[in-house]
DNA sequence: AACTCACTCAACCGCCTGGCT
DNA sequence: GAGCCAGGCGGTTGAGTGAGT
């Protein structure tokens, strides 16, 4: 007989998270934090297990998540660190600010491993110094007995340089108001913490159970409608839709903080 | 248009680890 | 030291999607 599940799965949702669940999780964590993942779903009114909530937060909803394709520098960093650390995805992720272990693992398994194995079949390309994408793996050949120490130094070096790069990238992305793709739900939530830029503080939001029900019912229609009109992976302004529906039909039930939200500043990407 | 196939990536599963009693 | 528990981690899965036929 196998190990018992981490929690009772009876009656719990599985599979893809809905926007309603996301919003509920974000709101709860912004307000109360996540000191106890196991208790969180119940307290937040989510029909999910704690692990699922933790994973969703860490891999997708966390404010500092960096979305979009990996840059060449990031890919090279992954390759170099994987060369030294192996499948220590969380350690590799700690060197790439805004990237998650899951994301890195996926990139490795889907792109980098294949690319490397094809390069191994033609060894010339690995040593080709004229190729800007060359891996320079020989730079990291070190005696086994010193491996961990040197890896630490490597990690330190990479971390500091990537933190700087990430900061710069984020600055330029946020300053471009046309760049919808650079402003995600995560950014929106993150921005709640920046009171100078945005007057709203989501930690002050009190959303009553009745309102959640209203959100869920209204949003089912809104999302289904929007998805019909946004085939092809285009941006859905989900919060705007939500606001529109809420203001139309449930204005007298809305908490004053929610009523005063300016959703124009926020975009959601699906 | 319908079908198949390959690919991607979010989410799940189960083991490991460390802290607490 | 033993047992329990929660969180963390890495491997794996499967739904969704796009390309090709």
UniProtKB/TrEMBL annotation:
PROSITE patterns xref list: HTH_MYB, MYB_LIKE
Predominant location category: nucleus
Keywords of the record: DNA-binding, Nucleus, Repeat, Transcription, Transcription regulation
Domain Myb-like: 9-61, 62-112
Cell compartment(s), UniProt: Nucleus
SMART domains, sorted: SANT
Domain of life: Eukaryota
A single MF term (Gene Ontology): DNA binding
One GO location term (cellular component): nucleus
A Pfam match: Myb_DNA-binding
Domain HTH myb-type: from-to ranges: 9-61, 62-116
PANTHER family named in the record: MYB FAMILY TRANSCRIPTION FACTOR, TRANSCRIPTION FACTOR MYB72
Name of the protein described by the UniProt record: Uncharacterized protein
Organism the protein comes from: Rhynchospora breviuscula
């Amino acid at each position: 007989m196998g190990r018992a599940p981490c929690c009772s799965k009876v009656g719990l949702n599985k599979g893809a998270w809905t926007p309603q669940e996301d919003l509920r999780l974000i709101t709860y964590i912004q307000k109360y934090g996540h000191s106890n993942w196991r208790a969180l779903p119940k307290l937040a009114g989510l029909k999910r297990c704690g692990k699922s909530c933790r994973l969703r937060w860490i891999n997708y909803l966390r404010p500092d998540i960096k979305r979009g394709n990996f840059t060449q520098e990031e890919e090279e960093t992954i390759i170099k660190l994987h060369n030294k650390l192996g499948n220590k995805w969380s350690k590799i992720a700690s060197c790439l600010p805004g990237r998650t272990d899951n994301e890195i693992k996926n990139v490795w398994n889907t792109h980098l491993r294949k690319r490397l194995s094809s390069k191994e079949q033609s060894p010339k390309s690995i040593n080709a110094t004229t190729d800007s994408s060359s891996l320079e793996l020989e730079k990291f050949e070190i005696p086994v007995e010193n491996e961990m120490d040197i890896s630490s130094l490597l990690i330190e070096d990479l971390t500091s340089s990537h933190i700087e790069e990430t900061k710069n990238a984020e600055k330029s992305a946020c300053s471009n108001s046309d760049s919808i793709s650079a402003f995600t739900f995560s950014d929106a939530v993150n921005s709640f913490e920046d009171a100078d830029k945005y007057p709203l503080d989501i930690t002050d939001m009190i959303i009553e159970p009745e309102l959640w029900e209203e959100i869920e019912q209204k949003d089912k229609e809104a999302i289904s409608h929007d998805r019909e009109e946004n085939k092809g992976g285009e941006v859905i302004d989900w919060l705007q839709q939500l606001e529109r529906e809420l203001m139309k039909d449930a204005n007298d039930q809305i908490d004053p903080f929610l009523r005063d939200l300016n959703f124009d500043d926020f975009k959601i990407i699906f």
